[in-house]
Amino acid sequence: MKHIKSHIKSVIFLCFLIFVLKGNAQQLDVLINEALNNNPEIQKFELQYKRVSEKVNEVNTVPNTEFGVGYFVSEPETRTGAQRFKVSAKQMLPWFGNISARENYVSSLADVKYEDIVIAKRKLMSSVSQSYYRLYANKAKQKVLTENINLLETYETMALTSVEVGKASAVDVLRLQMRQNEMQQLKEVLQQQFLAEQTNFNNLLNRNNDVTVNVIDSLMIPSEDFDITFEKLALHPELLKYDKLYQSIEQSELLNQKESSPMIGFGLDYINVSKRPNMDFTDNGKDIVMPMVSVSIPIFNKKYKSQTKQNELQQQEITAQKQERLNALETLLDKAINERISARISYATQTKNLQQAKDAEDILIKSYETGTIDFNDVLDIQELQLKFQINQIESIKTYYVQSTIINYLIQ
User: Fold this and answer.
1) CA distances from 285 to 83, 214, 281, 342 (A)
2) What's the rounded Cα separation, in Å, for the pair 215 and 48?
């Protein structure tokens, strides 16, 4: 229950950050919750956790009770009579604390499985968010291409008018048309790429591939970034999982020590004795009842010593793996931070260039009014403007994709 509460807090906190990050993130939050509820990978890890947790009941048992029945084919003759058959029962019991050690070990394995759920949910939230931003970028590029195609149609009309008065050539018109064709092709390619990404998105939510995903119309890079603390990286579930693994090995060693202890057993033998014929004395035909106590001692305990050595080596291995993963996560976080900063710089540059391109476009339009417009310049400016718009969209996408990576790592 403690784990579940902790995870719920984590999810709510992440959703809150996403909301703050994007302003209009309500739709994405809803989609993330749908993915968390329906994604089969999450369900797989939850079932694994339940299965391992159930093993606690499995290990909370004692060895089977042994029953035996024997019939004396050649009946041994005793003073009280011939022995006919024998019935025996025996129950071995583990040493004190052995069952508790097993339960603790299985519980520690369940704790490791729980971290798999937390990691999978974090990765899923990050994957859904990144796919959402890729869809946004695709739609935004299509919108920009549509605007530019419409703009070129306007220029084409202007060029046709200029051709009629002899201030432009038919080649100018053809160039404008070819540029429109090229943009239309880019737009159609983007539409196909959107469908492919939409399928990926729907699969993350475990729903039909043809469900339409509606993304928000516009995104802006916020004026300030949220604080990033590298120390939080130490609490990442991928690293906590190594701590849980280490603890499970500790419990495994405690169990190993308990299993190297003796086992004690209690039993009872019953032997049926028949009466001796033609004789009359007190114990004639008296059955035999024999309580027994047995002890199982692992004299040759090389197996347990070897297991102890293996546990020590495995703990060292886990420590090394944790450090290796921490280094990898630090590299990933640093890369995401720097790429997000680069995206902000690029966005500012593209915004500035875009404004200057629009100023140049205004100058060209005024040139048309005086009859001195050069349509080659029109194409050049339009190409630059489109390039800046696409780069601006890429900067926004990169900023938010890197933010989701940072969220995955430190939130």
Assistant:
1) 9, 92, 9, 100
2) 34
Residues 267 and 143: their CA atoms lie apart, in Å, by: 84
Q: Which of 65, 63, 66 is nearest to 102 (CA)?
A: 63
Alpha helices in 260-301 (DSSP H): none
The residues, any chain, with a CB within 8 Å of residue 196's CB and separated by 6 or more, are none
Residues 6+ apart with CB under 8 A from 248: 105, 108, 109, 111, 112
Return d(Cα 164, Cα 170) in angstroms, integer: 10
**What are 292-318's pLDDT values in tens digits?**
999 988 887 788 999 999 999 999 999
Q: What is the pTM of this model?
A: 0.84
> What's the half-sphere exposure (Cβ side, CA atoms, 13 Å) at 34?
15
Backbone angles phi, psi at 73, to 5 degrees: -65, -45
CA dihedral 77, 81, 87, 92 (to 10 degrees): -80
260, 304 contact by CB (below 8 A)? yes
Residue 22: what pLDDT? 47
Low-confidence ranges of the chain (pLDDT < 50): 1-17, 19-25
Residue 255: how many other CB atoms lie within 10 Å: 23
130 neighbors 35 (Cβ within 8 angstroms): no
List the Cα angle 404/236/39 in 5-degree steps.
60
Report CA-CA distances (Å) from 389 to 177, 198, 354, 383, 394.
Answer: 21, 23, 7, 10, 9
Contact predicate 221/343, CB 8 Å: yes
Which residues pair with residue 290 across a beta bridge? Answer: 269
